[in-house]
Amino acid sequence: MVSQTHKGKLAEAPPGRNGVKTDPPASSEMVVRAPVLVLNLNYVPINVCTVRRAVVLLVKEKAELLENHQGQLHTVDRIIDAPSVIRLAYLVKRPFLPRKLSKKEVFLRDRYTCQYCAKKSQDLTLDHVVPRRQHGPHTWDNVVAACTRCNLRKAGRTPAEANMKLSKTPRAPDPNPYLILQNRVILDEWQAYLPWAIRGVQEG
Ligand SMILES: [Zn+2]
User: Fold this and answer.
1) What residues does each domain of the chain span?
2) In terms of Cα–Cα distance, which of 56, 51, 47, 73 is closest to 180?
3) Interatomic CA distance for residues 204 and 193, integer angstroms
4) Nearest to 128 by CA among 156, 160, 152
5) pTM passes above 0.85
6) Gap from CA of 116 to ligand 1 centroid (Å)
7) Which of 23, 131, 145, 156 has the highest CB neighbour number within 10 Å of its CB?
8) Residue 153 Cα to ligand 1 middle (Å)
């Protein structure tokens, strides 16, 4: 619906003959803000940025151009094709930000399984391994999914104090490379660089 509005506006714009510049500013502005797929040095997609940002990376030789987008950019002294896929000239070692710590994300990480009794349950609670009252932090490595029964049994104690054992050491979940493409339109030029997009998102 949004794109229709854009199209409508563009259609209404003057054809650009009457002494007006050929490119209406609206469309240049749209090109500048168009999305660009950013690949790591190893060709793994790591980000989506704007054409504006991509051009800066290209000009500074921090990235190379792999695919062009529809449209051109007018800079002070030249016209350049708008990039659509770029590849960084260096390797970003930990490209994906750790996922946001929330109850739902912890349950997902722990596969809806109580980390004490190994029972799968939809009725889970968030357990701080070292309890908050003992100054346990609210961090990925100190929170686990626990069923209500185990949570009651543990009752504000550490696993050692409660004589309970964690099935595994909690840590931040694996980064999810799909996140960068969530709720985004996948441009045609990107397809070849997105092996997952073709297979579709699989539940991990
Ligand atoms: Zn349990």
Assistant:
1) 23-95+176-199, 103-162
2) 47
3) 21
4) 156
5) no
6) 5
7) 145
8) 9
Cα 204 to ligand 1 centroid, rounded to whole Å = 22
Instruction: State the residue for tokens 């104690």.
Output: 157
- DSSP state, residue 99: P
Highest CATH level, class, for 103-162: mainly alpha
User: Over 31-86, what HEC string results?
Assistant: HHHCEEEEECCCCCEEEEEEHHHHHHHHHCCCEEEEEEEEEEEECCCCEEEEEEEE
Residue 103, helix vs strand vs coil: helix
| Tens of each residue's pLDDT in the chain, 204 residues | 333 333 333 333 334 344 334 444 446 777 888 899 999 999 988 889 999 999 999 999 999 999 998 777 777 777 878 899 999 999 988 666 666 788 988 998 899 999 999 999 888 999 999 999 999 999 999 999 999 999 999 999 999 999 999 999 999 876 666 667 777 788 889 988 887 644 444 333
- C-alpha 167 – ligand 1 centre gap (Å): 11
